[in-house]
Amino acid sequence: MTDRRPLLRAIFDAAVAAAHPDVVLSAHLRPAPKGRVICLAAGKGAAAMAAAAERHYLDALKLDPSRLIGIATTRHGHGVPTRRIRVVEAGHPVPDEAGLKAADDTLRLAAEATADDLLLVLLSGGGSANWIAPVEGVSFAQKQQVNRALLRSGAPIGEMNVVRKHLSRIKGGRLARAGQRAAEIVTLAISDVPHDDPSAIASGPTVPDPTTLADARALVARYNLSIDDAVRRALDDPRNESCKVGDPAFARAQFELIARPKASLDAAVRIAKDAGYDIIELGADLEGEAREVAAAHARLALKARSEGRRTAILSGGELTVTVRGNGRGGPNQEYALALADLLKDTTDIAALAADTDGADGGAGSASDPAGAVIDHKTFAKMKSLGLDPKAYLANNDASAFFEATGDLLLTGPTLTNVNDVRVILVD
């Protein structure tokens, strides 16, 4: 029986490579200004983006090093060496003290920008947790508690960010407001959100926000979030409304996407097509409960198998998990676990589900799994060990299941983030 794991990994690697800062950033960087380049970066790709910006300005353009300053705030374990731009490793998905201080330093640097300076903002997925700047009256511990409640709620990332924006001094356009004396604010972003909404990437620190405090309050009610009274008061305070279209903060602000989930999915499709598979592409913007999406995809796979078609089913987007148990895992592992339960009687279907940033759920460590792989070996191991996928699903404990079968995908930090890649190969 052919081992499809190398092909699955090649498909995933192609998706990641298409969005790496080393590949996508330099073509979008602006000429050097009269004054300084002040680089402010956040997210899982922040340090890699900062290093690429340094190569452009210091090596290609020969900018005097004293004219390049900045700070890049990234997830723990995602730092890379830099020369002029300071790298801070901070908490994700739950913010920590390092992110709190880095956000304050970022706002201070933005406020120091003058009419001769370029404010270069580099964003990637994870920036919402990395830049943590609670509004007045909300403590850091209270903001952390809100993040934990959101992560367990099953809310899609866009809705989570609506609440985050209205409790922050940096999100929802406020970074642009802090830096509005700069000659120009240029934001270059790697999209990790469905439909590439600029106001959702890292919670839109430099773009107008179409959502309101009323929207945030409605989401708190919809998901029955447990929040402190101080947070409720903040969401009732009109001073915490985010920046809207027409705000002077955006007069000299530009926003550009430099990598999109669709481009990465296209790269993955090319590898599968070159390997001789018929393609079912389900799009780069899928959302929904991980196990429910897995059930729909399993039906597609079994149909292709019954028709004798050699098929690759590919999708992107960002799934969610409504946490009811106390296990470990993330949406990609939960998706793969649900697939394993539904496909366990087959021998000719293999699948991979992973986050392109190299971390699917987990504890915020660089060694967290990116996702999981399943195939006939998984099914044989399940049987020999007497593992019941349904019991692990009930406890949201996909990591423990795949640790037992040896099927966790461990990539380490990839230094980019364009959401998930899911591949099912039907032979």
Helical proportion, percent range: 25-40%
CATH architecture of the largest domain: 3-Layer(aba) Sandwich
For the biggest sheet, the summary is: 6 strands, parallel
* The CATH top-level class label of the largest domain: Alpha Beta
How many individual helices? 16
Q: Could you state the order of secondary-structure elements as H and E?
A: HHEHEEHEHHHHEHHEHEHEHEEHHHEE
The percent range for strand residues is 15-25%
Pfam families: DUF4147, MOFRL
GO molecular function: glycerate kinase activity
Organism: Bradyrhizobium lablabi
Keywords: Kinase, Transferase
Give your account of this protein's structure.
By secondary structure, this protein is α/β, with parallel strands linked by helices. 39% of the residues lie in helices and 16% in strands. It is built from 16 helices and twelve strands. The radius of gyration is 22 Å and the shape is globular.
How does the SSE layout of this entry go?
Elements: H1 5-17, H2 21-24, E1 37-42, H3 46-60, E2 68-75, E3 86-90, H4 97-112, E4 118-123, H5 127-130, H6 140-153, H7 157-165, H8 174-178, E5 184-190, H9 213-222, H10 229-236, E6 253-259, H11 261-274, E7 278-281, H12 290-306, E8 311-315, H13 331-343, E9 349-355, E10 371-374, H14 376-385, H15 389-394, H16 398-405, E11 408-409, E12 420-426
Parallel strand pairs: 1-2, 1-4, 2-3, 4-5, 5-6, 7-8
Antiparallel strand pairs: 8-12, 9-10, 9-12, 10-11
